[in-house]
Design goal:
Helix content is 47%, strand content 12%. α1 packs across α4. It has one domain. The chain is built from five helices and four strands, in the order αβαααβαββ. The protein has a two-stranded parallel sheet. A two-stranded parallel sheet has the order 3-4.
């Protein structure tokens, strides 16, 4: 599964590079205190999906018949793999122990050539920046 995950990330990166786009990735630390409750809620929802996925597999359900949103759960700590693949293909990688939203905002608002942000979630820091937000979901 890790090899397949690597390939998906690689193909994603190559698709954008082939169009002449520069990909920049951001990896942050723990959620800010103000976002902690929302983060916990999301993790618990994901955990419920993971339990349901394992229940399906244990019951012998054909993996191809499993609900799409369940079989596309990204495992914890996958960011390390993603970060590595981005680095291999020459993409800029920013790592911070702070919340990523502030770093994203600073970089994207200082450049006039930022097309979009692809993320799992973002808070309202981007209301002052005219860019697209593409959700991972």
């Amino acid at each position: 599964q890790l090899k397949e995950f690597y390939e998906v990330i690689r193909e994603f990166i190559i698709a954008f590079i082939s169009l002449g786009a520069e990909l920049i990735s951001f990896f942050d630390g723990p959620p800010a205190a103000s976002k902690r409750n929302a983060w916990i809620k999301r993790r618990l929802e994901t955990l419920a999906d993971i339990y349901a996925l394992f229940d399906d597999l244990t019951a012998g359900v054909d993996p191809l018949q499993i609900q799409n949103d369940r079989k596309n759960i990204i495992p914890p700590n996958s960011g390390c793999v993603i970060m590595h693949v981005f680095h291999i293909y020459g993409c800029k990688v920013y790592k911070t122990i702070l919340e990523c939203d502030a770093v994203n905002f600073k970089i994207c608002s200082s450049k006039n050539d930022c097309l979009a942000i692809l993320a799992q979630d973002l808070i309202s820091l981007f209301t002052k920046v005219h860019i697209y937000y593409w959700s991972m979901k």
